């Protein structure tokens, strides 16, 4: 483990900033530049974090990194990462956080904790997700310890597409910072005309059974690829039908995905959502070769755990209102 905290004048060499998505990108030696920045470097086997506080002199130094940093005002900054496919729309994308209330919104999908809207930018229909401002401790975590939700959604979308799993194509992510801490994240993706798994009213009973069987096979493919979606509910699973009559599926709300080898338990627990198809668990166990009774007991414990969490949250909400 290498830890270095440096302040003061150093040789004038380009700096390394931004977050690194994999260990192959981690530099072994990180140079400093000639200004009054403060850096905190944690270089471990899996992690490399960079933290810096800007002063007026540092703002005048051109950032050599791929991720753009745009000054919104004197105490707020914006980080933008745009896919190369849409790089020519950098100015329009970078202006979204400051012009959020005046965007050309054609449809709002969700406006609860997070806001998901369909916006029109030029000739494109994009889905914009604005994440809620985190509490103070999470702002610190998203600044110094782990990527924020918008960054993860952008990176995980690219990773899913590389693994052959459909998800809306990522356009860009934006992150605003105030007083050096993460404030609000934005994620933009292409619009997909796939329907939610809730929307099966237009199908016949035979087609609906075929859809659910195909969905069980899709779930098995996900888990064989070591992809676990902890919020695996019909609202986050989209489907479409090909001209040949086959069903295809797409994942959304992917910022909490887990990748990598793990035990069977988390995969089965992800199927505990009560609104999933009733025969999903039995079909899934038949495909994967798992014992159905074992899976049912895992699902039951998970649902009991979820019920306790909901009771605690309801109690805390009532307590705050008193």
Helical/strand content category: alpha+beta
> What count of helical segments does DSSP give?
8
User: Measured on Cα atoms, how large is the radius of gyration?
Assistant: 22 Å
**Gross CATH architecture of the largest domain:** 2-Layer Sandwich
Query: In which range does the helix fraction lie?
Result: 25-40%
Shape: globular
List how many beta strands DSSP finds: 15
Q: Quick one: CATH class of the largest domain? A: Alpha Beta
- The third-level CATH topology of the largest domain is Phosphorylase Kinase, domain 1
Percent strand equals 25-35%
Distance between the termini: 48 Å
Mean pLDDT: 80
Give a short account of the largest sheet: 7 strands, antiparallel
- Taking pLDDT < 50 over at least 5 consecutive residues as the criterion, the unreliable ranges are 1-72
Number of structurally distinct domains: 3
Sheet with the most strands: spatial strand order: 4-5-9-10-8-7-6
Elements, N to C (H/E): EEEHEEHEEEHHEEEHEEEEHHH
What does this structure look like?
The chain has 322 residues and is of the alpha+beta class. It folds into three domains: 1-65, no CATH class; 66-192, Phosphorylase Kinase, domain 1 (2-Layer Sandwich), CATH 3.30.200; 195-309, Transferase(Phosphotransferase) domain 1 (Transferase(Phosphotransferase), domain 1). The protein is built from eight helices and 15 strands. It has a seven-stranded antiparallel sheet. Helix 5 packs across helix 7 (280-288). The chain is globular, with a radius of gyration of 22 Å.
In short:
By secondary structure, the chain is of the alpha+beta class.
């Amino acid at each position: 483990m290498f830890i270095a905290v440096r302040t003061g004048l150093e040789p004038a060499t380009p700096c390394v900033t931004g977050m690194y998505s994999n260990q192959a990108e981690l530099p072994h030696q990180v140079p400093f530049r000639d200004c009054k920045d403060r850096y905190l470097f944690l270089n471990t086997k899996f992690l490399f974090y960079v933290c810096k506080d800007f002063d007026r002199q540092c703002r005048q130094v051109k950032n050599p990194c791929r991720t753009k940093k745009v000054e919104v005002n004197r105490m707020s900054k914006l980080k933008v990462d745009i896919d190369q496919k849409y790089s020519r729309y950098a100015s329009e994308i970078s202006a979204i956080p400051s012009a959020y209330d005046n965007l050309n919104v054609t449809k709002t999908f969700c406006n609860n904790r997070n806001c998901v809207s369909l916006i029109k930018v030029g000739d494109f229909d994009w889905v914009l997700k604005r994440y809620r401002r985190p509490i103070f401790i999470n702002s610190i975590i998203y600044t110094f310890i782990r990527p924020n939700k918008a960054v993860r959604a952008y990176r995980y979308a690219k990773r899913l597409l590389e693994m052959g799993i459909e998800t809306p194509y990522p356009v860009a992510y934006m992150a605003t910072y105030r007083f050096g801490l993460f404030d609000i994240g934005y994620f933009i993706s292409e619009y997909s005309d796939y329907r939610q798994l809730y929307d099966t009213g237009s199908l016949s009973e035979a087609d609906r059974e075929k859809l659910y069987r195909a969905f069980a096979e899709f779930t098995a493919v996900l888990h064989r690829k070591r992809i676990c979606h902890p919020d695996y509910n019909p609202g986050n699973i989209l489907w479409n039908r090909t001209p040949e009559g086959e069903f295809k599926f797409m994942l959304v709300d992917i910022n909490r995905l887990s990748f990598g080898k793990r035990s069977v338990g988390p995969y089965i627990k992800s199927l505990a959502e009560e609104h999933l198809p009733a025969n999903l668990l039995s079909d899934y166990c038949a495909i994967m070769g798992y014992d159905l009774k074992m899976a049912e007991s895992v699902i039951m414990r998970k649902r009991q755990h979820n019920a306790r969490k909901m009771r605690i949250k309801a109690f805390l909400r009532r307590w705050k209102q008193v």
